[in-house]
Automatic annotation (TrEMBL):
Keywords: FAD, Flavoprotein, Methyltransferase, Monooxygenase, Oxidoreductase, S-adenosyl-L-methionine, Transferase. One of its GO terms (molecular function) is O-methyltransferase activity. InterPro entries: COMT-like, COMT_C, FAD-bd, FAD/NAD-bd_sf, SAM-dependent_MTases_sf. It comes from Colletotrichum chlorophyti. Residues 29-164 form the O-methyltransferase C-terminal domain. Gene3D superfamilies: FAD/NAD(P)-binding domain (3.50.50.60), Vaccinia Virus protein VP39 (3.40.50.150). It comes from the Eukaryota. This is Demethylsterigmatocystin 6-O-methyltransferase 5.
């Protein structure tokens, strides 16, 4: 037990009394108070006269406690006769294996220490001896975000931060308790937690299925060390989420390295715009160093919110509405428009020396005993770190080692991304009302064809990306352009019976871009010349053909690790039809950065489990939104019925 934690102990055991059925215990039942310290046992002994009580603590603490207890004239002699003090070494087997209840208090605040696991592990034989025995843990159990009131969360966070500053200790989150107890063969039993008391009470019992090998499982509970220059946080992938995380770690001085498979930040077309909503903006403001955040704001394009829909064959407006669709901020209301390549470039500022390009990951290994993780690249280089983040996108090499059975679906659709310069010629040819804000063009199969193939929708989304003179004076920006994406079932892009993914995949980058541009023209050959001009005048070097892949909304939970996790598309790829993929990844990065900052670069499995729980829920909401858009834009049926994605 931490000696300093004694200072935080409540003078009564009110939570333990209210949350456990002491009255049902038989006369003479023995209660062992582990880390009982200064004799608070009198509280329970007074309330329940049928119980015998044993206080266990190291000799130096026990002597003072026993002297104070026995000399206290306010305690009746009958109560004193039922309370014994026994010197105990918590690293050794439990000295009183026949008790009904073992109370563990304030001995688990600092999760970097082995004490909590050792104490609980040594109690398992007692629970095996008597399956009615229970372990009552009276300690901080921080609830998951959103499960209690805002005031309750604020109070818990305040106590946690006070404990950290004053005692270099911290409270455990509920998921951390579940992880720790599971490792030693115990589980939490449902109980009453009145008014979210802090400290709270967890009643635990023997888990019917014992751990495979307690000694092997225990290795992961060895003291974990924080990230250092020698063992930094390793980020695989220099996409938006990986770079946001890197900047956030830079902000709080946690060592890190970034490894990217591409040869440079702009080595392949990724120049289409992103629309970020308020939560992504807040995440960037919280995560980025101030200078980087100001560069981000300066680089944003002029924001215009509204939608105009066109008939693809007549070039005439069919629907139009300014704003997000409803009054105020209801509906589609982004906060910023930003060029993806520019954003990635800004996110490298100040950390250029910590980003390594042309580094294709081969595999990673977790060393639980040493509390470290190593990554090996295909060029043979091996790097060791404290924590690994797989931010390496859809084709993640980290994911199979973490979630080998993760289900990803091939939606059967594809899209061509592109950019068309906003030249005078283009402005003269394209419909004027299509150059204000978002434009949507929807093409469905003719009547008789639809009887056989369904609607087979082809949808075009375009939006002008313009930069103000003020922004151009502060940051080098590209010429104004129209971003566009053409979405359709993969079969609509076929030529000569060959799926485009097979053909494009066999070409070099320049050839693949030319083929993607050709496909955009072929699919829209019946469209009105004014609409089609966006393809005819495109920058053919920027065209990219991409299959639409998606995770299922409900991502099953997995066993969290103190040494590795995933971010963004590496865990929850989604259709672009919701327009929230990058936004979700940015929020993931900010959430993980907060976890790493709060744990000083030394997270436990419980800390990461809490982060991953939030990431799964965030991903679920975004995938559902993308699924809705996919139904409208290319006729997606059910993701459940889609074929598994094979990686090609």
């Amino acid at each position: 037990m931490h000696k300093s934690a004694v200072l935080l102990q409540h003078k009564t055991l009110t939570p333990a009394v209210e949350c456990f059925d002491w009255a049902s215990m038989p006369k003479g039942a023995r209660v062992v108070d582990i880390g009982g310290s200064y004799g608070d046992a009198v509280y329970i002994a007074t309330k329940f006269p049928q119980l015998e009580y044993i206080v266990q603590d190291p000799p130096e603490t026990l002597t003072v406690a026993q002297t104070a207890f026995m000399s206290d004239l306010s305690i009746e002699s009958e109560i004193k006769s039922r309370v014994r003090f026994i010197s105990s070494d918590f690293s050794q087997p439990q000295a009183a294996p026949d008790a009904y209840v073992y109370v563990v208090r304030a001995s688990t605040h600092n999760t970097l220490d082995r004490d909590p696991g050792i104490i609980l592990q040594n109690l398992r034989p007692a629970l095996e001896r008597n399956e009615k025995s229970r372990v009552v843990i009276v300690d901080t159990a921080l609830d998951p975000p959103g499960s209690t009131s805002l005031l309750g969360e604020q109070q818990s966070s305040f106590r946690d931060s006070t404990m950290l500053r004053g005692l270099n200790a911290n409270g455990n989150k509920l998921v951390a308790w579940k992880t720790l107890l599971g490792e030693v063969g115990m589980e939490i039993e449902p109980s009453n937690r009145p008014h979210r008391e802090v400290p709270g009470t967890l009643t635990t019992k023997l888990k019917h299925s014992a751990p495979d090998d307690i000694n092997e499982l225990w290795q992961v509970r060895r003291p974990l060390m924080p990230a250092t220059d020698e063992r930094p946080v390793l980020i695989i992938g220099a996409g938006v989420s990986g770079l946001c995380l890197a900047q956030a770690l830079r902000k709080v001085n946690i060592p890190f390295l970034v490894f990217e498979r591409d040869s440079a930040i702009d080595s392949r077309p990724q120049g289409y715009r992103l629309k970020l909503r308020e939560d992504a903006e807040v995440a960037l403001a919280e995560s980025l160093p101030e200078d980087v955040y100001q560069h981000f704001l300066s680089s944003c394009a002029i924001l215009a919110v509204g939608e105009t829909d066109f008939n693809p064959f007549t070039g005439e407006v069919t629907k139009s509405r300014p704003g997000g669709g409803l009054s105020g901020k209801l509906g589609l209301c982004p906060s910023h428009t930003v060029d993806r390549t520019i954003l990635r470039s800004i996110l490298t500022m100040g950390i250029e020396d910590r980003i390594h390009f042309s580094k294709q990951l081969a595999h990673h290994n977790v060393n639980r005993e040493q509390g470290s993780v190593s990554v090996t690249f295909i060029d043979g280089e091996r790097v060791e770190g404290r924590f690994l983040v797989g931010a390496d996108g859809l084709h993640s090499v980290v994911r199979p080692g973490v979630l080998p059975e993760h289900k990803i679906k091939d939606t059967g659709a594809a899209c061509v991304y592109g950019k068309t310069p906003l030249t005078t010629e283009f402005a003269n040819r394209f419909p004027e009302k299509g150059l204000r804000w978002m434009t949507v063009v929807s093409d469905q199969a003719p009547m008789l064809q639809s009887c056989h193939i369904g609607d087979a929708s082809v949808t075009l989304l375009t939006e002008p990306t313009r930069f103000s003179e003020e922004s151009r004076s502060k940051y080098p920006l590209p010429e104004d352009y129209v971003y566009w994406v053409l979405i359709a079932p993969q079969a609509r892009f076929c030529s000569d019976g060959e799926l485009p993914v097979a053909k494009v995949g066999s070409l070099n980058q320049q050839q693949a871009a030319a083929e993607a541009a050709r496909l955009s023209l072929a699919v829209t050959e019946e469209w009105h010349p004014s609409i089609r001009s966006v393809f005819e005048l495109q920058d053919m070097r920027q065209a990219t053909f991409v299959r639409i892949i998606s995770s299922m909304p409900d991502i099953p939970a997995w066993e969290p690790s103190a040494m590795v996790t995933l971010l963004g598309d590496a865990i929850h790829p989604m259709s672009p039809c919701g327009g929230v993929g990058a936004q979700t990844a940015i929020c993931d990065a900010a959430s993980l950065a907060k976890t790493l900052a709060e744990t000083h670069g030394c997270p436990t499995a419980g800390d990461i489990g809490t982060f991953e729980e939030g990431m799964r829920e965030r991903g679920r909401r975004s995938i559902l939104q993308s699924e809705t858009g996919s139904r409208k834009m290319f006729g997606l049926g059910s993701l459940e019925e889609c074929k598994p994605w094979t990686g090609y």
